[in-house]
Design goal:
The chain is an alpha/beta fold. It has seven helices and six strands; from the N terminus they run H-H-H-H-E-E-E-H-E-E-E-H-H. A hairpin with a 4-residue loop joins strand 5 and strand 6. It starts with 10 loop residues before the first helix and ends with a helix.
């Protein structure tokens, strides 16, 4: 039976991934309500100035801050969503206890996801981790997958400066769209997933009657 949403994972798998993310949203919203918003440390003086000087009523400011906190808490769940989606592609799986976000079942590929810019120290640690894995599995390719950059690229990861550089022949940096294309063998896989979401979320809603 032909898939309704995307053709690199099953409809069932996609709807399950959406369901898991929906549960994360529900949990985040229940954890950050107006009541427990006030139970946390709130700068009421700043809230008053923001309201008066920006011409925004306090209720709107509070709702905006609650949404900001929900958004902050849901970021990790968005990362998990990508892991689960890509883990449903034939030949690949979640890294689970391997220390990687996604891996090939035959150990030919290992990947770590990055959703925000990090310090050079963290970058060094991630590179060392990937290089160590590449040395252990000599036929593998290891990737740092960049989910925050607008640039589309795939390149050997080189650390350092003009005087001193470090690299490994099997360690690469790659943008999210290129990584989706690599695993699915489809140029527009990530874009097709994004385009399918309104339709697939509606499909999830019809099945579960939990969304507006």
């Amino acid at each position: 039976m032909k898939n309704k949403y995307v053709n690199f994972i099953t409809d069932e798998h996609l709807l399950n991934c959406i369901g898991n993310l929906h549960k994360a949203y529900l949990k985040a919203k229940s954890n950050i309500s107006k009541q427990n918003f006030y139970s946390n440390k709130v700068d009421t003086i700043k809230l008053t100035f923001d309201s008066k000087f920006n011409g925004i009523d306090q209720e709107s400011l509070i709702q905006s801050e609650i949404l900001r906190q929900i958004d902050k808490s849901i970021n990790n769940s968005i990362g998990t969503f990508h892991e689960q989606i890509l883990g449903g592609i034939e030949g690949f799986e979640l890294g689970n206890l391997s220390g990687f976000d996604i891996k090939a079942k035959d150990d030919s590929l290992f990947a770590v996801f990055q959703f925000q810019e990090t310090s050079s120290n963290i970058q060094d640690c991630v590179f060392e981790k990937l290089a160590k894995q590449a040395k252990l599995f000599k036929n593998s390719i290891c990737y740092l997958v960049d989910f925050y950059s607008d640039k589309s690229y795939s390149e050997k990861w080189v650390l350092g400066n003009e005087e001193y550089t470090v690299s490994h022949k099997s360690v690469f940096k790659i943008s999210a769209d290129k990584f989706y294309s690599l695993l699915t063998k489809q140029d527009d896989a990530l874009n097709n997933l994004i385009k399918s979401l309104p339709h697939s979320i509606s499909g999830y809603s019809l099945l579960h009657s939990q969304l507006p």
